TrEMBL record, chain A:
One MF annotation (Gene Ontology) recorded for this entry: metal ion binding
Pfam families: NIR_SIR, NIR_SIR_ferr
Family, per entry: Belongs to the nitrite and sulfite reductase 4Fe-4S domain family.
Protein name from the UniProt record: Nitrite reductase
Domain Nitrite/sulphite reductase 4Fe-4S: from-to ranges: 140-281, 437-580
Protein species of origin: Rhodoferax koreensis
UniProt-listed InterPro entries: NIR_SIR_4Fe-4S (IPR051329), NiRdtase/SiRdtase_haem-b_fer (IPR005117), Nit/Sulf_reduc_fer-like_dom_sf (IPR036136), NO2/SO3_Rdtase_4Fe4S_dom (IPR006067), NO2/SO3_Rdtase_4Fe4S_sf (IPR045854)
TrEMBL record, chain B:
Lineage, opening ranks: Bacteria, Pseudomonadati, Pseudomonadota, Betaproteobacteria, Burkholderiales
Domain of life of the source: Bacteria
InterPro entries: UCP030820
Official protein name in the record: Oxidoreductase
Organism: Rhodoferax koreensis
Amino acid sequence: MYQYTEFDKQFVRSRASQFRDQLERWQAGKLAEEEFRPLRLQNGWYVQRFAPMLRIAVPYGELNSAQLRVLATIARDYDHKEDNDLSKANPGLSDLKSLPSRCAHFTTRQNVQFNWIPLDKSADVMDLLASVNMHGIQTSGNCIRNTTSDERAGVAIDEVADPRPLAEIIRQWSTLHPEFAFLPRKFKIAITGATDDRAATAWHDVGLHVLKNEAGEIGFRVMVGGGMGRTPVVGTVIREFLPWNQILNYLEAVVRVYNRWGRRDNIYKARIKILVKAEGQRYIDEVEAEYQQILTHDGAPHTISQQELDRVSASFVVPASRVGTLPLSAMPIPTIDPADTNYPRWLARNVAPHKNPALRCVTLSFKRLGYSPGDATGEQLDIAADLADRYSAGEARVTHDQNLVLPWVRADELPALYAEAHAAGLAKANVRLLTDMIVCPGGDFCALANARSLPISEAISQRYQDLDELHDLGEIDVHMSGCINSCGHHHSAHIGILGVDKDGQEWYQVTLGGSDGSDLSGAAGAGKVVGPSFAAAEVPEVIEAVLDTYRSVRQSAGDKAETFIDTLRRVGHDPFKQAANAARTSTGRAAPQAATAA
Amino acid sequence: MKLIAFAAHTAPAEGQKDAISLANDVDPRTVPLEGVSRIDLNFPKFTDGRAFSQAFLLRRRLGFQGEIRATGDVLIDQLVQMQRSGFDVAVLREGVDASAAQRQFDRYKGFYQGDAVHVVPHFAEPASTLGPDAAAYAGELERQHSA
Ligand code: HEM
Ligand code: SF4
């Protein structure tokens, strides 16, 4: 992991004290509400339905065990439902009693969120975070957000180059950039160094692929203008190869042109994707011209020196405790109950190969019944910290799919890790299966939601608890968002679910065939809407009908079944649409009303 | 950075040659700057950040040596950012309490990226200018090179 220098540490502490200053001026009435709002947002403090939501930045998803323990403390000591005014409940939308509290929430952007911390405790929480070099800088607001990456960065077997040193250099460059703190809209960068895209790069404002050219030099393929929301757009490649040391100069050009020309008159047209779409080649030409000016006139001050790359890279060397791992043959063979059918499945699903053949990359599943997807209680965070210390050189990664990865696990310690993770309820063998859903907080917490997402995901998970069935269905991406803002990435799902509002009631639109751009899903693209929206109770029926259709038409080669997404592409959407629409009438819900839904 | 109270500021007159004001959608590279000693840039809302890029271009790209003045919705929490982007004078919005302004300039020991005024990014600064961090930084480099 990156080792913070004294400068880095001091910087985070300065930020915490700056926030306290702003909070106190606001409390004293010296800073108007609308003046404080963007300031608190740029520190991660949203105000939601009942309470502020705090979003904490986790640069490219990397966390150490000390940080996990501080998150555990915050969950236990500050994330209290009872401390908040619950009178703002929206009667149709939230079931207050069952809303989780005292827990952290892993997000699709590899960050961590809390839902119940009162604003008057916010400065204390920032100080606590700063004690382990954490903060909420630019986790919200119209600025460059946390740069996300591959959860297996640095350990993946399909990696061309480790993207983390470059991600860290980008983090530093974008942090409190004076020119780019008030852009037309938020701005998200994702970077991967692997061939399988686990970072959904095409869906970001800037997507970067680290690659090697024919001469063996490292550089980037640069995509610009991807994004979801009400207009899903896949990013456009604007540079096939940019030398690695020019990335900051180039990003400066990309963002400056956006700052000047991005639309500010209409919030729905303010994202860079709209500018890139509207201007096309003209946007690309202008970026290139601006980049040339930075090189020739400004002297390219942000050209990254080899020395700086070396300095940052030195933080990302293989942890010392994992270098001299035992040869496999010398390892004791631990015992696992042969009747535990979950264990071999866990090995197959939750354990990924590693650059070092003696090591593995293990996913702790935070998708289990009784908890919202990606929620972790204080106790579970402490357990995760212990597991990271014992089995993964003290390091964990937040994944884009809302789980935690332990990237440095010795193969011989898998049974022991399994036993402990299983006891803690974190060893469900469902990674990338149906119940490993991506779900946003939805109407239960989010003030912008049209519908709840947590109860729907719970209902679907309930229905698919049988591991045999889950594994038979195979890999499938189900993503759900409570409104068109698409925080749950429903556009990129094989089966997407989107909450829509109709007559003050919750309705759900279903999409099929979206892709995040990974090898499993193929080229990135948005799914297609099945038809009119469904009532909440119908959604699990619809999912079941779609999956039953898949099972009846899929082909198998040997013992390998055709995946859901491949089947859908082969036979087309129609049989699935018909099945889904049949599920609508079968429950006798108000079909005519639904037929006019958005 | 020099702060001016709202009452003490006068906008350039129409046709005035040595002082001009630019709307925030104007590309400063299209404006003749000969004989101009002061340019006012405007923040219609403090959340509209176009003037930061304008100031950067004036200072860095065009080498403008005169005064770049921030006007409009100017609050104290953006002053450091303004200064780093190339502004040297700011007119606080009417009614803004300036007493907390100086604290904002004193808080950070440095920033990561270069800007319009302090061009060199933190990582490229010679160790001698790194202040109290210099030893730690140099030590870290040495450790890594000898590793
Ligand atoms: C409850 C707090 C939240 C609020 C108020 C919120 C607000 C928003 C808004 C307004 C947008 C649309 C922005 C635009 O199109 O410019 C958006 C998009 C998004 N948000 Fe959230 N969000 C919240 C929670 C989350 C969570 C929990 C996640 C991750 C699980 C998340 C990740 C995203 C992503 C990935 C997008 C789509 C970005 C794109 O268009 O490329 N947000 N959010
Ligand atoms: S998708 Fe909508 S409901 Fe879900 S978190 Fe984002 S803004 Fe809230």
